[in-house]
Design brief:
The chain starts with a helix and ends with a helix. A hairpin with a 2-residue loop joins strand 4 and strand 5. A five-stranded mixed β-sheet has the order 3-2-1-4-5, sandwiched between helices. The chain is α/β, with parallel strands linked by helices. The chain is built from eight helices and five strands; from the N terminus they run αααβαβαβαββαα.
Length: about 325
């Protein structure tokens, strides 16, 4: 029995009674310092930080979605009511986008802020197509840009064609008086035969229609009326008062442009909020999917770390036992 107990104690202290005990202790310390355990903890910390960032982004996108929904409800009614302003002008003067004139002014309506999908890019693409279609040796096409986003895109390749740019228009709630003053400034600073307003017409939260509205100058309206067609019906109306036909057409076209621009800005602002609401909803769902993947990665990394530590403990115990 005594010999058996002695043999057991000898096996317990055998690792310390090696030929080079100092080297054995040094190697054990080095292995503890350079163990891959530190690397595993850094990996899990990186994943944890990434999860925290994604959670913060998800909170922001959800808050932006709620803000966009609130603004959408406030502006949608105004946009729908403004449609009744320009519809009588379309019935009286018509809307002829295919009219061939020399001086074309393309009024591109966009937003001042981003994170609203491709709503601004769509307006810019249509504006560039109109510019290419109406530019030529005997034609002239200029831009009037409303909104920071369209200005940032058009200024890259069409700086010399931008006649006027207006930004921060939607910083305060819009009313018709502000837009009428803006329309008057545009008419005073540009020469035109046709104003082509490019905007996005609101249909639903997830759908909007790129739209082009055309406003002709009084001279072109009179010319088209004399040539017949729908505008030829203007001669059937009686003019009361001391104003001439040219003065009446001048007032009508200016008022038409103010009404169309007011509706275009409201429709585009409503479409912007709907597009932002949809984009933020998609971003929140994508953040949730990414968070699920990061959680799975974190759990797998943590489980692998725990498993490796258990294996090391078991292997060390087996080595000590002999």
């Amino acid at each position: 029995m005594a010999m058996a107990a002695l043999r057991r104690e000898g096996r317990r202290f055998a690792p310390l009674m090696s030929h080079n005990p100092i080297n054995a202790v040094r190697s054990s310390l080095i292995s503890e310092e350079l163990a891959p355990q530190g690397a595993r903890s850094i990996s899990t910390q990186v994943v944890r930080n990434r999860m925290k960032s994604v959670k913060n982004i998800q909170k922001i996108t959800k808050a932006m979605k709620m803000v966009a929904a609130s603004k959408l409800r406030a502006i949608q009614t105004r946009a729908e009511n403004s449609r009744g302003l320009w519809q009588p002008f379309s019935a009286l003067l018509g809307d002829t986008p295919s009219v061939d004139v020399k001086k074309n002014v393309i009024v591109t309506v966009s937003s001042d802020k981003g994170l609203c999908g491709g709503i601004n890019s769509t307006s810019v693409k249509i504006s560039r197509a109109l510019h290419k279609l109406n530019a030529g040796p005997e034609k002239e096409a200029k831009y009037v840009v409303v909104g920071e986003k369209a200005k940032a895109q058009l200024i890259r390749d069409s700086r010399k064609d931008i006649e006027l740019s207006i930004t921060e228009l939607q910083k305060n709630p819009l009313n018709y008086t502000q837009v009428a003053v803006l329309a008057d400034d545009i008419l005073k600073n540009v020469e035109y035969d046709a104003l082509r307003i490019v905007f996005n017409k609101f249909h639903s939260v997830v759908q909007y229609y790129p739209t082009i509205a055309t406003v002709l100058s009084p001279e072109v309206v009179e010319r088209e009326a004399e040539s017949g067609g729908k505008l030829g019906e203007l001669d059937s109306y009686e003019i009361e008062g001391g104003e001439t036909k040219a003065e009446v057409l001048q007032n009508l076209t200016e008022f038409q442009f103010g009404c169309v621009l007011y509706n275009a800005i409201l429709e585009n602002a409503t479409s912007e909020q709907g597009a932002r609401m949809s984009a933020m909803d998609s971003s929140s769902r994508n953040a949730g999917d990414m968070l699920d993947r990061l959680t799975l990665t974190y759990n797998r990394t943590r489980q692998a770390s725990i498993t490796t530590e258990l294996i090391e403990i078991i292997s060390g115990a087996s080595a000590l036992e002999g």
